[in-house]
Write a structure and sequence with these properties.
Layout: H1 19-53, H2 69-79, H3 90-101, H4 103-108, H5 125-146, H6 150-181, H7 186-191, H8 201-204, H9 206-219, H10 231-234, H11 244-269, H12 281-299, H13 307-334
Helix pairs in contact: 2-11, 3-5, 3-11, 5-6, 6-9, 6-13, 9-11, 9-13, 11-12
């Protein structure tokens, strides 16, 4: 049955549901399931990666090879009591985790998982994702400020300084590729690349890819750039006072944002859903999860940098290099 051809009870009035709206609603439902399932899988994989790299046992007690440990953790998280700390701003305190989580669904909409597997077709898909990504910074700022906790406030200040600083070279690195192909449409950027690695944009813009990936680590607050949380210094930073599903929403948003930055890297630099044989969404997911494994490997291998080192890396190296790379691209395109 074609959903878009449903008719109203009144035979004289035709009820037509536009195909783009149907695609959008179905896409949102599918994305909600994907975000939940993805977080469950990634938590288990990250624990196993950490156990392997640091030679310590990962989850092994709940279910075969500890495969049900994440489910047990989720049940515990949902069952915890929600509490608001004394002196906190009640409205902003609970608005922050919602604001951190909900924009994630909008950022997934224009991502092309396959030739016909996307929820929203727009020629400014990359701009849409970057615009909504900025809301996450505001959510972390609100969480730290509204908690009435000094560790939360310091963590929020760090999150804002880090996100605003690293956002600039990240944008410049993506603009270099957009200049090359003259588009902000993720589907067009994917189709402009070929199935083989030397036909991908990473072969043309290796410096832009390196800068983007480093900035993506910082934007998602992943180690070695996890200073907004920094357990050994700030307890848990901006989400120190959150428990239960308040913390759970920040947790889900972090893993969903990891998927988003890796999906952008895949579509813009790594050929997207195209591969040497049988192009399809499996190539897209293979590339995305390979990048995620690299992010996990870096978290459990490299120590956390100091805050001055974090800022120096951005302002002294990444930003000048990204600017020079963009200028060089513009000159070459003009010639």
């Amino acid at each position: 049955m074609n959903i878009s051809s449903w008719s109203s009870p009144d035979p004289n009035v035709a009820l037509v549901i536009p195909d783009p709206l149907v695609r959008l609603l179905v896409g949102l439902l599918a994305l909600a399931a994907f975000v939940g399932l993805n977080a469950t899988v990634l938590v288990y994989v990250e624990r196993k990666v950490a156990g392997f790299i640091q030679r310590r046992p990962g989850p092994y007690e709940v279910g075969p090879h500890g495969i049900l440990q994440t489910l047990a953790d989720a049940v515990k998280l949902v069952g915890k009591q929600l509490s608001t700390p004394r002196g906190a701003d009640f409205f902003l305190f609970w608005l922050a985790p919602i604001m951190a989580f909900l924009p994630v669904f909008v950022m997934f909409l224009p991502i092309p998982f396959g030739e016909n597997l996307y929820a929203l077709e727009t020629n400014v898909g990359l701009l849409l994702i970057l615009a909504y990504a900025g809301l996450n910074v505001l959510a972390l700022c609100l969480a730290g400020w509204a908690s009435a906790n000094k560790w939360g406030l310091i963590g929020a200040a760090r999150a804002v300084a880090q996100s605003v600083g690293y956002e600039i070279p990240l944008l410049l690195s993506l603009l270099a590729v957009c200049f090359t192909h003259g588009s902000l449409d993720l589907m067009e950027l994917t189709r402009a690349q070929g199935p083989w690695p030397w036909q991908w944009n990473v072969a043309i813009q290796p410096l832009a890819f390196f800068i983007y990936f480093v900035c993506a680590l910082a934007e998602t607050n992943r180690a070695p750039f996890d200073l907004p949380e920094a357990e050994s210094e700030l307890t848990a930073g901006f989400h120190t006072e959150y428990s239960g599903m308040g913390f759970g929403l920040f947790f889900l948003a972090e893993y969903a944002n990891m998927i988003v930055v890796c999906a952008i890297a895949t579509a813009v630099f790594l050929g997207g859903f195209q591969g040497p044989a049988a192009p399809g969404p499996w190539w897209f997911l293979l590339k995305v999860y390979s990048l995620l494994l690299i992010m996990m490997w870096m978290r459990w291998t490299y120590p956390r940098v100091r805050f001055d080192q974090l800022l120096n890396l951005n302002w002294k190296w990444l930003l000048p290099l990204a600017t020079l790379n963009l200028l060089a691209t513009a000159v070459i395109m003009k010639l």
